[in-house]
Amino acid sequence: MTMADVGASDPRRADPAPQGGEREVVISARGVTVAFGTQVVLKDLDLDIYRGEVLGFVGGSGTGKSVLMRTILGLTPKQAGTIEVLGQDLDKISDQAHRQIERRWGVLFQMGALFSSLTVKQNVQMPMREHLKLSPQLMDELALLKVELVGLPRTAADKYPSELSGGMVKRAALARALSLDPEILFLDEPTSGLDPIGAADFDDLIRKLRDTLGLTVYMVTHDLDSLYSICDRIAVLGEKRVLVAGTLDDMLNFDHPWVRSYFHGVRGGRLFKAVHAKASNESPAKGSD
Ligand SMILES: Nc1ncnc2c1ncn2[C@@H]1O[C@H](COP(=O)(O)OP(=O)(O)OP(=O)(O)O)[C@@H](O)[C@H]1O
Ligand SMILES: [Mg+2]
User: Fold this and answer.
1) Nearest Cα residue to atom 27 of ligand 1
2) What is the phi/psi pair of residue 52, to 5°?
3) Do residues 18 and 233 lie in contact, with contact meaning Cβ atoms separated by under 8 Å?
4) What is the CATH number of the domain that holds 128?
5) Among candidates 253, 255, 252, 256, which has minimal Cα distance to 268?
6) Alpha carbons 261 and 227: distance in angstroms, whole number
7) Where in the sequence is the domain holding 259, given as residue range(s)?
8) Averaged pLDDT of the chain
9) How far is the CA of 65 from the centre of ligand 1 (A)?
10) Contact (Cβ atoms closer than 8 angstroms) between residue 120 and residue 159
11) In what order do the strands lie in the sheet with 25-36?
């Protein structure tokens, strides 16, 4: 495996289409630069996300993962570049069209996942109130459906966030992100703070939702287990740009100090063995170049 395999041959192309030919790009970032005063956080960044995939987004703390997510969502201004979501350039569409696009994504932020003064049900209904005109009765029914969808008991709907466990808060925040039946789900560190079993359960839930609802999932994570178990592709942020995007195998073969220490370090060593054990059990029919 060489760098060319992961798309480095074309500098404008952050990553190649995954196996299986052309797939629809649902988020496309090109030449994105974001700065706060003199601090340049992202510079000339390119990234594509394909419909139906779970993309794991990693990078050192403070490298700009949350900033990129907020920039894609239009919450943080950029100094240069274009971002297209679902085929629309977000800088060129009307406020009305922007609101239409907002209805098609759901977000679980890293901080402040839920409003503490609202019950779970009221939190889940917030996006509905903002975007839809529904009767209170229908909103109650829909909120309960979302609560059940994320594996919470119906009794959790009338509880306040302070009355829930950490894992339940994450699920409730996920229910809110799913409030409007989005096509794209943005998750910023969804399993941070959960124990390994809680995190694995959450990963299972994300996988099931992706499979049943056909979601595209953009997931910022530090969790190597999540990367291994549910991500179709991984993108690494470093040096203010996407250093590499591809499969876990691509990460393991990519020659960059941070990428190597992350994926081959003590925590990554187990993954490395698992991937290679899996690869050696599969037929060696992979194309060579
Ligand atoms: N609104 C803001 N104003 C000024 N600086 C900001 C703002 N938001 C983020 N930054 C800075 O941008 C940099 C990237 O922050 P960001 O939150 O994206 O990091 P991150 O990769 O998500 O880190 P972590 O893994 O710790 O969550 C940091 O230096 C941060 O201080
Ligand atoms: Mg962050």
Assistant:
1) 61
2) 85, -5
3) yes
4) 3.40.50.300
5) 252
6) 16
7) 54-74+98-278
8) 86
9) 8
10) yes
11) 39-50, 25-36, 80-85, 88-89
* 2 domain residue, yes or no: no
Q: 59 CA distance to ligand 2 centroid (A)?
A: 9
Q: Which residues of the chain have pLDDT under 50?
A: 1-16, 284-289
Number of domains in the chain: 1
Rounded distance between C-alpha atoms, residue 33 and residue 240, angstroms: 9
pTM greater than the 0.85 cutoff: yes
Residues with CB under 5 A from ligand 2 (ion): 65-66, 110
Residue 98 CA to residue 91 CA, distance in Å, equals 9
Pocket mutation for ligand 1, best pick of 33, 34, 36, 68 (most atoms within 8 Å of C-beta)? 36
Judge whether 283 lies within some domain. Answer: no
pLDDT digits 0-9 by tens, 97-139: 999 999 999 999 887 678 999 999 999 999 999 888 899 999 9
Cα 64 to its chain centre, rounded Å, is 14
Tokens of 15: 């990553």
3-state SS assignment for residue 93: coil
